[in-house]
User: Which sequence fits this backbone?
């Protein structure tokens, strides 16, 4: 039930869905006063959600920053790569199709080739409400091998459906062969806070390596301050999804 609710709730917290619902309600309502209020609320939220400066400042408060390679002071036995970066239903099926989070995979390969991680554990199965049988960890394995990671240096955990299950399953795989301090957690910066919380809750705390950074340096240019941008909507979507996810994980006892 928790898995179903967490997935369906995401759709109703998307900025464009919220704005669209308010504008739709303004068309349905008969009272002029509430019709005007909901329409104005929809327009104000649309301007808020599409403002690059505001969305960037909000996400900067949440996102765990990236670590420069030069600041990594040790070599880790395992890089724990969390999935969520490929498009399973995109054709043709004879290749791996990456979404916006491809940095998780490419930065993992860079860590491996720099000798900062010796092996990679890819964790993630199907996070969809309707399981189509495809496992993202298997797709990422194929991609990493093509990019130069030796297949014998890759361990796959392909059954977890969310971050909590990844933490449980990764610990089960590694508890007899490794230690938390020998592992480096790799995921998107906006997803890192929840991920660290899940692994710490399972008594497997790790160092973090954030990829797929979606914030930028603070700017005060005219386009950043005043021009509506679609990218800002996407940033807000991640911010809302992760903050709600973090809160719900606390309630569920996953963090």
Assistant:
């Amino acid at each position: 039930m928790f898995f179903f609710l967490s997935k369906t709730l995401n759709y109703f917290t998307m900025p464009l869905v919220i704005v669209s619902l308010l504008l739709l309600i303004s068309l349905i309502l008969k009272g002029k006063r509430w019709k005007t209020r909901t329409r104005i609320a929809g327009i104000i939220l649309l301007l808020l959600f599409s403002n690059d400066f505001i969305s960037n400042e909000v996400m900067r408060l949440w996102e765990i920053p990236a670590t420069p390679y030069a600041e990594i002071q040790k070599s880790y036995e395992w890089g724990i790569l969390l999935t969520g970066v490929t498009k399973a239903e995109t054709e043709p099926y004879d290749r791996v199709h990456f979404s916006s989070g491809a940095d998780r995979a490419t930065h993992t390969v860079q860590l491996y080739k720099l000798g900062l991680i010796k092996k990679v554990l890819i964790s993630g199965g199907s996070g969809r409400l309707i399981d189509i049988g495809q496992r993202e960890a298997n797709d990422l394995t194929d991609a990493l091998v093509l990019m130069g990671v030796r297949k014998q240096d890759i361990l796959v955990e392909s059954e977890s459906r969310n971050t909590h299950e990844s933490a449980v399953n990764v610990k089960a795989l590694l508890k007899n062969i490794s230690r938390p301090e020998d592992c480096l957690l790799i995921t998107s910066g906006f997803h890192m806070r929840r991920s660290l919380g899940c692994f710490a809750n399972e008594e497997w705390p790790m160092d973090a390596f954030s990829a797929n950074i979606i914030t930028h340096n603070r700017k005060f240019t005219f386009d950043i301050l005043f021009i509506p941008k679609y990218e800002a909507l996407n940033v807000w979507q991640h911010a809302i999804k992760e903050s709600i996810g973090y809160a719900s994980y606390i309630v569920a006892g996953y963090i």
User: Anything to note?
Assistant: The mean pLDDT is 92. The domain at 69-211 is CATH 3.40.50.620 (Rossmann fold). The chain has two domains: 2-63+221-252, 69-211. The first helix runs from residue 2 to 12.
